[in-house]
Amino acid sequence: RIRKEIPDNVTIVLASKTRTPEEIIKAIETGATDIGENYVQEAERMYNSLGEKAKKVRWHMIGALQKNKINKALPIFDVIQTVDSLKTAVAIDRRVEKAGKKIIPVYIEINIGSEITKDGLKPDYEIIESLVREISKLKHLSLEGLMTMGPRFGNPVVNSPPT
């Protein structure tokens, strides 16, 4: 139903958090093309539970990716949406090269609500622009865009940081 209301060039990523493998299989069978997971270990379990169906969708890392989990993440995830520092980007780039993958799409994570409980860069143009320039120099990452998530409650205008 939602798919009919948004442009075709918009990708809907379904977060599998708290969902069962059966629910994800049903989503795939009804047209889901992209699945997001917050944790590498949860993604491993879900991916393995889905069998061949897991290969029919693109997997997005949508939670903070710890550097010690990058090697485990690369065989599962097709996209990493939570790059929030050059250090993380460089670590992913090096591991992608070692794993023999050519390029992995990444998104810069922005904490648009400036929430202390959320990861991501401050919504500061100069900081973001600097990271964009540096990531663009890396050979094994393709910067696709920004990943943002606003506050869960309240008026988004009131909860937005000052500009």
Automatic annotation (TrEMBL):
Record keywords, A-Z: Pyridoxal phosphate
Domain Alanine racemase N-terminal as annotated: residue spans: 22-151
Chain coiled-coil ranges: none
Protein name: Alanine racemase N-terminal domain-containing protein
A GO term, aspect molecular function: pyridoxal phosphate binding
SUPFAM superfamilies the record matches: PLP-binding barrel
InterPro entries from the UniProt entry: Ala_racemase_N, PLP-binding_barrel, PyrdxlP_homeostasis
